[in-house]
Write a structure and sequence with these properties.
Strand 4 and strand 5 form a beta hairpin. The strands form nine sheets. The chain has a six-stranded antiparallel beta sheet with strand order 11-14-15-10-9-16, with helices on one face. The chain has a four-stranded parallel beta sheet with strand order 2-1-7-8, with helices on both faces. It has a four-stranded antiparallel beta sheet with strand order 19-20-21-22, with no helix packed on it. Helix content is 38%, strand content 23%. The protein is flat. The termini are far apart.
Length: 715
Amino acid sequence: MPAQMAIRIRRLQKGMEIRMAKYLVIVESPAKVKTIKKFLGSNYQVAASNGHVRDLPKSSLGIDVEHDYEPKYITIRGKGEILANLRKEVKKAEKIYLATDPDREGEAISWHLLFALKLEEKLEEKKVYRITFNEITRDAVKESLKNAREINMNLVDAQQTRRMLDRMVGYRISPLLWKKIKRGLSAGRVQSVTLRIICDREEEINAFVPEEYWTLDVNLKVKGEKKSICAKYYGTDRERENISCKERADEIMAGLKDASYSVKEVKRGERLRKPQLPFTTSTLQQEAGKTLNFSTQKTMRLAQQLYEGVDIKGEGTVGLITYLRTDSTRVSDEAQQRAAEFIAANYGDSYLAAAVQEKKNARKIQDAHEAIRPTDLSRTPVAVKEQLPRDLFRLYQLIWKRFVASRMREAKYETMSVRIQAGDRIFTVASSVLIFDGFMAVYSTEEDKSEENILNVALDTDSELNFLSFDAKQHFTPPPSHYTESSLVKELEELGIGRPSTYAPTITTILARRYVAKEGKNLYVTELGEVVNNMMKEAFPSIVDIHFTASMEALLDGVEDGSVKWKTVVSNFYPDLDEAVETAEKLLEHISIEDEVSDEICEICGRNMVIKYGPHGRFLACPGFPECRNTKPYFEKIGVPCPRCGKDIVLKKTKKGRKYYGCIGNPECDFMVWQKPSGESCPKCGEPLLIKGNKLVCADTKCGYNILRELSKKS
């Protein structure tokens, strides 16, 4: 009997709760439901849409180009049950609050929910509202209810425009890639430009010819000091000199054979190092990549969890950081005040910044949100460490430290610059000592740490110096670095391509399509990526034009602020794209990439094997498929013998798709180089000469020999 009574009471309580829930709040993610429900109480029911509920159909363009470019939205497959449940909740509610994410995408989801849930009538009765909050905290959520508004159609139109432009490019161009290369490939408005940027860097690296230069140091004994000092060669009093070859270094050393050394000048001063600004989406992805070795995708996934809420002992589920998609460094006055109080209490007033610096950027930024920061500074990394998984903790710690440091005073260094005279030559010594750590008490990068250069020797104009030795070293200028995910995000941001929310999915896509391979932190173009990029450059130069893509982003910003009509952007873009596709179809008729017949004979059935494209690039396959399923790796011979064993050198790929040149006799012969061998040998050391742009360069970087290819051919 008591058990039955308890069940009845629970049912009664549940029924009362349902009847009491007068207001419905719809969010995007189920992870937010529990957190927000806790803040609002029994009068509110909180439900999730699980992201987008309507989209353009996958089976067709989904845009009526004949009738003013009207999009044809349909319910996303699998969302029927979610929408059915939401409609039941809508019927019970007196008011509906659409609380999707506070950006273009979130605004569009709210707009789609309006139609999918048939809320137009309730909208007219002023019973449907749009609310946004930059952080999932009690104060922020309750404040959003006080500032409920209508849906911002400028934001919706900006998202619609981006979606339609992306659909137009992908839907019209991707089939050409399927036809000429292989099915499953894709082109994209931002994706294709990103691939081009990586390909262009690869070409720069392949064409780069290192230049020789030398450094010259002198080791000197200071009278009365146990330690010696090392001074760097500067030049003369009149100008700095760069030493380009060994002969010049020897000449300088010979000229100073009997020279006396004296301290000509000592300058002392102070230098300030400013803290870095709080994180934006881009800078968070960059720093997490550099310091934590996180991919952009992983960084965004973890940041999403920190924003939506994690379980903290004694508090329940709480959002630890503010909204993660932003390109603003702005911080609210309230957050600024709380940060000042925290720093004063924990580090002292001397660590408080005199004035807060702001980001200077000529390009328009989306300033609707604050920078990424902790929602409550009292939740220090130490306080939450035991309650967070390792990677989640590391990212939170990075965000927490960066924000606190950004509100602190500059670090201060005491500097000393010494000029040492030797004949008519000048050598220099520099010293930098940290005298006030400022923001570095909380957060410092490797770059910050390298600023200190302590000279443990007292020097002034009366110091007596005695020559000990010279140290001349040969160097070569390094090639441009391969992009990492971090440096690529930085490049995309500086060029104005894409937006904070697009960086991670764009990089993820080109990796998934195997256009680009990731080895260590570096990104390398694959053979497949080269083929796709070359085809895009030849057939669709405007689509992969960096400036054109950046200008499209500016137009989307114009749609968002209401200065540009979205249909104007779409109607101007599509006819040019349509014409480009028709031209490309004619241009590419003569190109046949797939099923090129090779000289290789199938050892099973005797047919000539054909060259096909797979996920990892080209391979040989028997044309008798499915009767004969024989396949083998395809190695392109370059017509150059191996310098070690005389067999053919062929173009190969690493497991992840990066190109290199190696002996076909591998593993018996392990010869391999990253650049194409010329077939000639270095006259200085005998190593192979590699083709780099218009020069032949010795494979041994310590040799440094290079010569113009035209000159080499004549000789």
